[in-house]
Design a protein that fits this description.
10 helices; extended; two-stranded antiparallel ribbon; 47% helix; mainly alpha
Length: 294
């Protein structure tokens, strides 16, 4: 009995301490104003390009011309730092390239291989079955070349980020090259509200990045940086939207087919529901008539 009493007394005091701690924390939470940092005030949520993406919505479709332009941006700009390891060259046929074009495109890349005579690692021309190669042999080399920040693989980047396509577009098009000095948003000036905030090299200021300062240098710095083969004007917003659309396809190439299948399934379910309702009416109509006669 003494042991049970001691346990009950201990539980009582533990409960009192826990209740007091909870009440103090709740009081502090509701009475003290939390100081908002620059990340809270000046961060801008991702947004779509003007006119949105062609694949948006329930009836969205891939804009193959845009996907090919986006691939061109990836190849000429992004591939210098970012891999695309879950996409193979042969997958490019899905965005409008012919088999011959895919083989030629693959051959223009150098991928890791093995020398058949010596067994040593070497580089060879890519094949259609190869995946896009990484620009670095390993993460250590990637970090050493990018100020200890390992560039992420872009295969699933639009799936890994909230509002992925919008995130990629906004991030690429949203760099403030001049830095945070004098930056203004919604009538608020960053340097006036937070005079101690800085963007120190090797970081770069981007209000569409959650922490405002990002390790990735602006990849798109000038209009016309990529010359599109279809003659489209390559402004920074245009290039950003195109590569965002391409990476959306890379992350989920079956998205449009999934949407189309979804409509077929919904139509079938609706038809089956109506058919079941009519069958129910037919089945029970005789029983209801007999019940009325009784």
């Amino acid at each position: 009995m003494i042991r049970i009493g001691a346990i009950l007394v201990g539980l009582f005091f533990a409960g009192v301490v826990l209740l007091w701690s909870f009440s103090q924390g709740a009081y502090t939470h509701f009475t003290e104003e939390v100081e908002k940092g620059p990340e809270y005030v000046f961060y801008i949520p991702p947004k779509s390009p003007e006119g949105g993406f062609a694949h948006d919505g329930a009836f969205g479709k891939w804009d193959l011309a845009q996907l090919q332009r986006g691939y061109q941006v990836y190849k000429e700009v992004c591939a210098a730092c970012h891999s695309l390891e879950f996409v193979s060259f042969r997958n490019l046929e899905q965005i409008g390239y012919s088999e011959e074009q895919v083989k030629a495109e693959a051959a223009s890349w150098m991928v890791p291989g093995i020398n058949p005579d010596t067994g040593e690692a070497t580089l060879r021309a890519g094949l259609a079955t190869d995946a896009f190669p990484s620009p670095y042999p390993n993460d250590i080399a990637a970090a050493a070349a990018n100020n200890n920040a390992i560039p992420p693989d872009l295969s699933l980047i639009t799936k890994a980020r909230k509002k992925g396509p919008e995130y990629v577009y906004s991030l690429l098009a949203g760099y403030e090259i001049a830095g945070p000095q004098g930056y203004e948003h919604d009538g608020k000036v960053l340097s006036e509200m937070f005079p101690d905030f800085q963007t120190v090299a090797p970081l770069y200021f981007n209000p569409y990045f959650e922490y405002l300062n990002i390790a990735m240098a602006p990849p798109l710095v000038v209009d016309g940086q990529v010359t599109y083969s279809d003659g489209t004007e390559s402004t920074i917003p245009q290039m950003s939207a195109d590569v965002a659309a391409f990476l959306t396809w890379a992350g989920e190439p079956s998205m449009v087919e999934r949407k189309q299948t979804g409509w077929i399934v919904l139509g079938f379910v609706l038809f089956a529901t109506i058919l079941a309702w009519l069958a129910k009416k037919q089945l029970w109509s005789g029983l209801k008539s007999a019940k009325r006669k009784d």
